[in-house]
Amino acid sequence: MGRTSIYMVIGFCAIMLITGKNMSDVGVQALDNSLSYYENTQRYTLAVAAANLVCSKVWETPSWTTGYSNINYNGGTFSATVTDLGGGKKEIAATATYGNSSQTVTIVMKPSNFSKFAYYGGTSASAAAWETGDTVGGPSHTQGKLKTFGSPVFMGKATSLSGITKSGSPATPQFQGGFESGVSITMPNNTSYTNILTAATSGGYGQTGGTLYLKFNADGTISWKTSAAASYSTQSLSSFSPNGVIAIDKGTLYVEGTLDGRVTLASLRTSGSSGGTTVITNNLVMKDDPRSNPTSNDVLGIVSYGDVTIADNSATQFNVQATMYSYTGGLAVQNGTSRPAGTLSIYGGMIVERLYATSNGAAGSARRGYNLSLRFDSRFSNDSPDYFPATGKYEILSWFE
């Protein structure tokens, strides 16, 4: 019995020693894991903080490319670079070091462009209301107070600077993407658009004064003339405007047709008190319809100093596929309160200083003019017509960790 007792004591001690060692190993491993997790978290937090700091600098000052080098922060260090990728895009690489390891966050930013809006209304856009039957099929912003009458539908997120005024019965606007007030996005000064004219005169088609009539043809040609009484001349779009920019300064632009290509149209007013207006005389659409083919490479941007007017051609259905920008005016419907009732369908965007009524607002048989169906071309979320006006700020295109 004595020997057996001794063996039992020795066995018990051995078991306790092994158990103690295992428990010690588990404790050490847990401590190591905790320290590793803490360091990884600190390293990640530091890298993200550095990336956000650089993004903020680029947002405030788009020309800033200085970056940072070995900045001490919160027990670690970080460095960051800003690289120009061309086309206005910038790559930000922020590397944080904590302990013996590093982590890099890479961000690509692009210029924020007004083409990202289905609808943008400037400070004067509160003069008219969106009404029952109107639809905005994408992101929208009003740089003032958004006004609604009845039950218009906003399919994307809607923002405004000064809130919303609802009227009509029932006063029930539908915000399917939500609504936010207190957001400010200002239009740039008109002089920033003259780069379009420079591009037109140096590698596209540029004209000063008078009128310019354009008809896009589905075979990739364009028919054009410079007076109403003249006969159209037709040539390939690539030879008429090699870089796809067509601009008239201090004149009036008339356009219609089916576009096969990528074009930016502009009717500008660099000086004086006349010109800078655009008239869409008939349907203006893409050969490769972006509504059914979201990878279509047919793209049209229209930039106008003054109004973009939908001509009265007696059509009850009028189609426009383009993103349109008016610095001082808006989208106007000729004889909008007296022409036959119908629908103006826009697939693209409408960025305007003023919002005009497109109908007389009556119901039933008394109605005249157009309901406005405005649908966003999702291609403009990441792409913009060449030389289309930008907001002067940057936004994040991609984020890699």
Topology:
Layout: H1 2-60, E1 68-73, E2 76-86, E3 89-98, E4 101-113, E5 119-121, E6 130-131, E7 135-137, E8 140-142, E9 146-149, E10 153-154, E11 158-160, E12 164-167, E13 174-175, E14 179-181, H2 194-203, E15 205-208, E16 211-216, E17 221-225, E18 233-236, H3 237-240, E19 245-249, E20 252-259, E21 262-268, E22 277-286, E23 299-304, E24 308-310, E25 317-320, E26 323-326, E27 331-333, E28 342-352, E29 370-376, E30 390-400
Parallel strand pairs: 5-8, 5-28, 6-9, 7-10, 7-29, 8-11, 9-12, 10-13, 11-14, 15-19, 16-20, 19-21, 20-22, 21-23, 22-24, 23-26, 24-27, 25-28, 26-28, 28-29
Antiparallel strand pairs: 1-2, 2-3, 3-4, 4-30, 16-17, 17-18
Describe the structure.
The chain has 401 residues and is α/β, with parallel strands linked by helices. It has two domains: 2-99; 114-122 and 187-391, no CATH class. The chain is 18% helix and 42% strand. The protein has three helices and 30 strands. The strands form four sheets. It has a 15-stranded parallel β-sheet that branches. Strands 18-17-16-20-22-24-27 form a seven-stranded mixed β-sheet. It has a five-stranded antiparallel β-sheet with strand order 1-2-3-4-30. The longest helix is centred in the first third of the chain and has 59 residues, at 2-60. The radius of gyration is 30 Å and the shape is elongated. The chain starts with a helix and ends with a strand. The model has no long low-confidence stretch (mean pLDDT 88).
Attribute tags:
30 strands; elongated; 2 domains; about 40% strand; about 20% helix; seven-stranded mixed beta sheet; single chain; 15-stranded parallel beta sheet; alpha/beta; about 400 residues
